[in-house]
Write a structure and sequence with these properties.
Two copies of one chain form a homodimer. By secondary structure, the first copy, chain A, is mainly alpha-helical. The first copy, chain A, has two domains: 48 residues, Homeodomain-like (Arc Repressor Mutant, subunit A, Orthogonal Bundle), CATH 1.10.10.60; 136 residues, Orthogonal Bundle (Tetracycline Repressor, domain 2), CATH 1.10.357. Chain A is 73% helix and 0% strand. The first copy, chain A, has ten helices and no strands. Chain A is elongated. The interface between A and B is large, with 67 and 66 residues. The structure holds a DNA duplex (30 and 30 nucleotides).
Chain lengths: 234, 234
DNA sequence: TTTTTTTATTGAGCCTGTCTCAATAATGAG
DNA sequence: CTCATTATTGAGACAGGCTCAATAAAAAAA
């Protein structure tokens, strides 16, 4: 038989570029298949190298995963930081964080599934790196919450860390459900619903809380005016 | 050398019992090591059988996982149902669900980590079973929410499904974080904080919101009426 | 009791996938 | 052009999931 037409020639490339190529390939393969199902051999093939080469750049399959996640998180963090710089007011800032997070999930479903599913399991020692990235990212929202409590926009008895968990946990759950059921993800609508529930709470308010209270005040003011005008008449 | 002292004799046991033993062993091993790290051989050893036997009872390692989760979920569901039967009022019922869920997580951390981490990843076809269990379980809270909207205890514009995600997602996130940081889990305190934030919302309320204001308005209105009637007397 | 049938249980071994390492050849320096 | 450096390779060690023909314990039949 003739030699295979697609024979790969051995070429040397600058370390940085080859590493980037492998990382890019890993990102794709992991996102498509998940961590467990992905084979390092396939990552290698897609990067145009042989399996051994991958291990010359990354210590293990898991190290490759962490590198992929790190890259993703760094992007997410800097985007969110930039965004927060342009939005004013605690409520608006929270709505922005929720909306942006949801948009990102919708756009990069594969990667996000990876993070939700694969990052968490191994409480194994080495995931310090991932925990730290997560802390940095969710720390952005945490600071908005703390600031809100300080400046009086948020309830003074609020526990910011618990609220942050409610926020991110809620998003993840909602997204995951929509992934499972296969329903298309309506990021904008979902963001609004989540924000409304979180910000305003879910309990029905006593009627006086919204407009009714104003109405009562209005009635009082009118009554008093009536009194005043009468008394002034005398 | 002498024959090993711990040589196992081949014994036949009733199907149901052997299956239960294997399941029990799997539950322990999975909970201790997580799915990926656990070896079927170890499950077998702990159940006092050989690897092949495990496969005579369960089709695959994953089927074993699903069986373990099924058993756990069934217990959780029936406990929660029983509990809900004894608690009245939407707010109390929600607080109960949150509290009970947190208690269970605290008590069975290993298994819960398994569910959070291993169940979710594989959107792979066969997890219908798990999805269904999850639906049944979280359906309990969903029904409480829907009922609350109907009877006026909860905001009429609430989206029950989104609220359910906020509820369970928030719990999971909070627990997971405490697992990671190694902090002991204060189920009671955390349950209260989560319930408060979810029920009441996080925004600061105008002072009029809590009953005191209503009472004040009422007193004012009465006083003015008294005044008015007096003046009418003249 | 003895013989036969049934089937739970075994363990050797196949297969896929991660990871290692000595050999190889592409590149840059002298 | 030659040599030294080191990126790249590919064969294979090792681990873990899973299969299957052989085996023997229990039940049924004689």
């Amino acid at each position: 038989m003739a030699a295979p037409a697609t024979q790969r020639r051995r070429t040397r490339r600058p370390r940085a570029e080859r590493e980037a190529e492998i990382l890019e390939a890993a990102r794709t393969v992991f996102a498509e298949q998940g961590y467990a199902a992905a084979a390092v051999a396939e990552v290698a093939a897609r990067a145009g190298v042989v399996e051994g080469t991958v291990y010359a750049y990354f210590d293990s399959k898991r190290a490759l995963l962490i590198a992929v996640m790190k890259q993703f998180y760094e992007e997410l963090i800097s985007e969110t930081e930039r965004g927060l710089d342009t939005v004013r007011g605690t409520e608006n800032r929270l709505r922005f964080v929720i909306r942006h997070h949801l948009d990102t999930f919708a756009r990069e479903l594969g990667l996000c599934r990876l993070i939700v599913s694969e990052a968490r399991p191994d409480v194994a020692l080495y995931d310090e790196a991932i925990l730290d990235l997560n802390r940095r990212y969710t720390g952005l929202a945490l600071r908005v919450l703390e600031e809100g409590v300080r400046n009086g926009s948020l309830r003074s008895d609020l526990v910011p860390s618990v609220t942050r968990d409610l926020l991110y946990g809620g998003i993840e759950h909602a997204v995951w459900r929509s992934v499972f059921t296969g329903a298309p993800l309506d990021a904008a609508g979902l963001a609004d619903q989540l924000s409304d529930a979180l910000l305003g709470g879910i309990l029905a308010r006593p009627v006086t809380a919204n407009g009714a209270a104003d109405a009562a005040v209005l009635r009082l003011e009118r009554a008093i005016e009536r009194l005043e005008s009468r008394m002034g008449d005398e």
